[in-house]
Specification:
two-stranded antiparallel sheet, elongated, five-stranded mixed β-sheet
């Protein structure tokens, strides 16, 4: 059964299916909540549950302590609403909201699509996610410390 989630302070409203986390529902409906690992380990998606109840899911105690949980905090990458909920969290709506990070990665596959266009498939560590907005680019730091900029086409 779907549940309604309201994000404060923006008052954005979206629906979460019964088997979805709050983060998955938000992303599916186009709302960018800050997140990192998506497995309850980093705490980037931590926010406050203002009304309603959630199943907290599986997470690491270092990402959400017992005292934070008592204060109404939840990890939205793991939390599943048990009814309609109101949450308070950080939404990413502009480039200024994205944190600049340096992440290790490997080139998983290279695919030449034309004489001057190559598609690179990059593999990040399993615990990392790359957040970006349309039109952004990424700087790759090569082994010899040269920097190469690329535009981002898709997350998959």
């Amino acid at each position: 059964m779907p549940h309604q989630v309201t994000i404060k302070p923006s008052n954005h409203v979206f629906t979460v299916a019964g088997d979805e986390t709050i983060l998955d529902g938000a992303l599916r409906e186009g709302f960018n909540i800050a997140y990192g690992c998506r497995n309850g380990a980093c705490g980037t998606c931590k926010g406050k549950l203002l009304a309603g109840e959630v199943d907290y899911g599986i997470y690491q105690e270092t990402a959400l302590t017992a005292s934070e949980k008592r204060l109404g905090m939840a990890l939205f990458c793991q939390a599943r609403p048990l009814g309609d909920v109101v949450i308070e969290c950080r939404e990413i709506s502009a480039i200024k909201d994205l944190q600049v990070r340096t992440l290790p990665c490997r080139v998983q596959k290279m695919e030449r699509v034309s004489d001057d266009i190559m598609v690179l498939y990059l593999k990040l560590p399993a615990s990392e996610r790359l957040q970006y907005l349309a039109g952004q680019y990424i700087d790759l730091l090569l082994k010899d410390n040269r920097r190469r900029s690329f535009s981002i086409a898709s997350p998959a």
